[in-house]
Specification:
- It is built from no helices and 21 strands.
- By secondary structure, the protein is mainly beta.
- Strands 9, 11, 12, 13, 14, 15, 19 and 21 form an eight-stranded antiparallel beta sheet that branches. Strands 1, 2, 3, 4, 5, 6 and 7 form a seven-stranded antiparallel beta sheet that branches. It has a six-stranded antiparallel beta sheet with strand order 8-20-10-16-17-18, with no helix packed on it.
- The chain starts with a strand and ends with a strand.
Length: 283
């Protein structure tokens, strides 16, 4: 059995902490506080490992049906490696014979989820730190284009590199499901960063003041968008400049780069290793 060094969960109930998932005692359990829009538990292994089996033990004395619908994943850092399957019935324990190389086991479920209560999680396989890599896939960018890819998940990030020129008025990055469902619109204007989304109509904006003096003409910069279960975090050259709530999960199947003016251009795009890019389209 592989060594677990820590456990975490969304919205934990203080009396029943996630550490109960790794203490070897099947009589106690970890408990979330209540219903949430999306739920997750993450188990962090001591070393990167070739995982071959995951066993999940339910609370022994009550409410075994609460975990129905949750999926089990093997992850390497922030990247999803293997979907091990979904819990579809009420049982005392579940065993997933599932092979993948990673250092995190995640149990998660999207949409509205009621409280969870699990007793223990055990992971089996062979450990070796040399197994894991978590490098983004870099591709040439196209200003004004849309890159079609698979869905993003919590822990993923998108990075776009561009070159600013004197006189550039604005440029933007969209994480979008389609033209009428933009999950995150990041719009850089002179001295203002605008974050919002679009579900048929544009939603409420969040505006963040910043100085366009951060940009230097002709010098490459990068915009990074990190995805968590609760929010998008936006960084400019590794400095956090804004956050926006996640409205939906697992719907973003495209990244849109919108060019600015007067010589501005996007140069490259970094996407997680798990979503498989399909094609550029648009201008």
């Amino acid at each position: 059995m592989l060594t677990i060094v820590s456990a975490e969960m969304k919205n934990p109930y203080e009396l029943y902490p996630p550490s109960n998932l790794m203490d070897g005692d099947l009589q106690n359990f970890a408990h979330t506080l209540g219903a949430e829009d999306g739920m997750w538990i993450r188990i962090n292994l001591e070393q990167c490992s070739l995982v071959t089996k995951v066993t999940v033990y339910n609370r022994h004395n009550c409410c075994t049906e609460r975990i129905i619908g949750a999926s089990i994943f093997i992850k390497a850092g922030n990247s999803y490696v293997k979907d091990c399957g979904k819990i579809s019935s009420s049982k005392t324990s579940y065993t997933f014979n599932c092979e993948g190389t990673g250092n995190v086991i995640e149990i998660s479920q999207e949409k509205k989820v009621g409280p969870w209560n699990l007793a223990e999680i055990q992971v089996y396989g062979t450990s070796s730190d040399s197994l894991c890599t978590d490098k983004p896939v870099l591709i040439a960018a196209r200003s004004g284009g849309i890159y079609d890819m698979a869905s993003l998940r919590p822990g993923n990030q998108i990075t776009a590199w561009g070159v600013y020129q004197d006189g550039t008025s604005k440029f933007s990055v969209n994480i979008a499901a389609d033209q009428n469902t933009i999950l995150l619109h990041v719009d850089f204007r002179f001295n203002v960063l605008v974050l919002n989304n679009k579900f048929g109509n544009w939603g409420s904006e969040k505006r963040v003041n910043y100085s366009n003096k951060r940009f230097k003409a002709g010098k490459e910069f990068k915009v990074t968008i990190k995805v968590s279960a609760d929010e998008y975090q936006v960084y400019l050259d590794d400095v956090e400049i804004g956050r926006y709530p996640v409205r939906k999960l697992n719907l973003a199947n495209a990244v849109q780069l919108v060019g600015g003016s007067r010589g501005f251009k996007w140069t490259k795009l970094g996407i997680p290793s798990n979503p498989k890019g399909r094609a550029w389209y648009g201008n």
